[in-house]
Amino acid sequence: SLFRKEVETIHEAGMRATSLTRQLLAFSRKQIVDFKVIDLNDVVNNLSGLLGKMIGEDVIIQTRFETELSTIYADQVQMEQVLMNLAVNARDAMPCGGNLILETATLIVDDSNTENNFNIKQGTYVTLSVTDTGEGISEEDIERIYDPFYTTKAQGEGTGLGLATVYGIIKQHDGQIFVYSRSGKGTTFKMYFPASIQQVDEGSEHKKISSLPKGFETILVVDDDESVRKLVVNMLNIFGYKCLLASCAQDALKYIQNQPDLLLTDVIMPGMSGKELADIFTGQSPSTKVLFMSGYTGNAIAHHGVLESGINFIQKPLTLDDLVNKIRDVLDKEVKK
User: Fold this and answer.
1) Among 40, 202, 213, 239, which residue's Cβ finds the most Cβ atoms within 10 Å?
2) What is the pLDDT of residues 254-277, one digit of tens each?
């Protein structure tokens, strides 16, 4: 019809605006997300066909999956968005074709590996690597690749939001991303996502979890690190515990009247320490038991006079088995008269 071309132009502009808005929301971490337990192998596998059509026949997609991959707690749509943005970037870096390699792995970060150089907290992670055999990224551009609206493309060929969006999504998932690249030698983007304690299917891990002791008590979790609070609550809710949350000792004091069964508190916090909090709590709520947690070792904390030896203590990073069993031990322990 007479207005068909105009309507199509308006529709295309609207679609571009929708995509741009989604990317801006992801970058600012305000996009509505649907977190659930997912297997990144499934996400990559299901998307690889679409990626092949997006990036063309000149680019060969190779996948290298770890078979016993841990799950992650993530928004599947956003994980797909990350892959698509990185795949498009890789295609643009390989105008004459090449290889796009998608790899997954489960990685335990501890003192024995170099990931500590990147200030990654110790723990179990699922890594996703996206590698291309393209022209690479210059040192000058690497410093700015995640900046919103920064692009090396000609005007009208890109918004500069692709990698900014990827960065925003990964941070929204408490993850980290690193880039390895040299001019003419290709590029690898490696992403780290905290592994989930839950499983998508009824596997051996599910049986292991179901054999751990459950409870019904109320636990007050006090830690100035939000990611730790979330992790602990996710763990404990699975096993039937009710959780109260506080980001500092002062915030925790308002729960004294609730008389929780257990105070699970970090030792070293801004302001009042966990030990000072516990002293106040047990003075006004004698029935509340206390379990301290810290990234420092128990001996180191005792050495500095923060805790007495022999007190209930668990070392960070927390693992599911240790936390659940320790909580049960403390709750079931008879109070000495």
Assistant:
1) 40
2) 999 999 999 999 988 888 989 999
